[in-house]
Amino acid sequence: MSRTSPSPASDFPLSDVPVEFADPMHPHLEAAAVEMIQEIQSLVPEYARPPESRYGRRMRWAVQESVRQFVDAIGRPDMEWAPVTAIFEGIGAHEARKGRSLDGLQSAIRVSGQVACRRFIKDARRLGWSLDTLGKITESLFVYLERIASAAGQGYAQAQGELAGERERFRWRLRDLLVMDPPASAEAIGELARAAGWPAPKTLAVVAVAPDPARDVPVLPPSLLVDWHAPGPYLICPDPDGPGQDRLLAAIKGTRAAAIGPTVPPARAALSLRWARRGLALAERGVLPGKEPLRCLDHLPSLVAAQSEELIDVALSSRLAPLMRLPPHRRDALSRTLLTYMESRDNAVAAAERLMVHEQTVRYRIRRLEEMLGGVLLDPGRRIELLLLLHYLVRLDSGDRRLSPGDP
């Protein structure tokens, strides 16, 4: 722990007061400390603790030591600050670790100074001090109080830094624990979340982010757990469907390509991350939109189809063989028309509006497809399969079968 540097002798006039002035004060040090403690407990609510409690005893010791060391400095050319500043650095650190501010401590120091001034004025009358002597003692008291208050602030700041570092390490461990596969237990997650100061949510979503070393890391709310250094960076977003979460995700909008995994319980964060990364991969391929953070559940058919590319590739040659034998431009037009027609509940007018062609063109193409594929189009049991194959062919196939990447 760092220590407050000594104050020059010129800044501490107590060294110019003859040492014999301290002797009549020693018998009254205990009474002075008691009066200070009583005044502090009366005026500073944070310190109104039972005298025999651990806190009360510690406070009494600190006040007594402070009073004694001030009087012992009378007539000494070099004030030894280390013992007294160590006391108040420790008190400041304790307040930080307890999550309290320094307001109470600063008030207690001021109250102690007021008590000391009153007693010095009485001592001056009792002992016949000159105004010059009283002035030097009072001036030294202000220097003393400022120095111990500064020491408390240093101890407080250092402890806060240590706590922040420790809390950040807990956050890193929690982040890694959440995306483990197989998942950790809810008890382990809850315990580590408490240590990290992270309120464990009922649900979360993981956002996969494209790595980009050339870009600065965006500043994000502390509620997000982030790993920018992973090969595939990601963010863990608590309660992603709750109020205000759009503002959290807006922090990464426009900075990097990103995909938002499905909302899941904390123990299934690995699943959310896995699908977020799959969604991001499709966005980077250009088959899904990537201008804004991509919500994976809004593209469920594409994600499901993309995970079965090998099987779908074989099925296309088998189930849609006549269509696959056509030249690319004809195959593309017919497959887009059929997919849009089926998505429009077999309504030629609605499909024509989406494709921006005449409705008779749609009807002609559907008749051609019925002739080519026969029972495949008419079998209700094959409809889901056909939709999946067409969706892949039109929107995901990156091979030479694709004519154009755009949606209809």
Brief overview:
By secondary structure, the chain is mainly α. Helices cover 58% and strands 5% of the residues. Helix 4 packs antiparallel against helix 5.
Structural description of this entry:
The chain has helices at residues 29-43, 54-72, 82-97, 103-127, 131-178, 186-196, 245-250, 269-285, 300-306, 309-319, 321-324, 328-343, 348-355, 359-373, 375-378, 383-396; strands spanning 204-209, 225-227, 234-238, 258-260, 294-295. The protein is mainly alpha-helical and 408 residues long. The protein folds into three domains: 9-167, Orthogonal Bundle (Globin-like), CATH 1.10.490; 201-301, no CATH class; 308-396. It has a five-stranded mixed beta sheet. A hairpin with a 6-residue loop joins β2 and β3. α3 (82-97) packs parallel to α5. It is rod-shaped and about 120 Å long.
The helix count comes to: 16
Biggest sheet, in brief?
5 strands, mixed
Q: Could you tell me the radius of gyration in angstroms?
A: 38 Å
Q: Approximately what portion of the residues adopt beta-strand conformation?
A: under 5%
Total number of strands? 5
List SSEs in N-to-C order.
Answer: HHHHHHEEEHEHEHHHHHHHH
Spatial order of the strands in the main sheet? 2-3-1-4-5
What is the architecture of the largest domain at the second tier of CATH? Orthogonal Bundle
What would the average pLDDT be, to the nearest integer?
A: 84
**Span between N and C termini?**
67 Å
What is the CATH T-level topology of the largest domain?
Globin-like
Provide the domain count. Answer: 3
- The coarse overall form would be rod-shaped
Structural class: mainly alpha
Assign the CATH class of the largest domain. Mainly Alpha
Low-confidence stretches: 1-10, 401-408
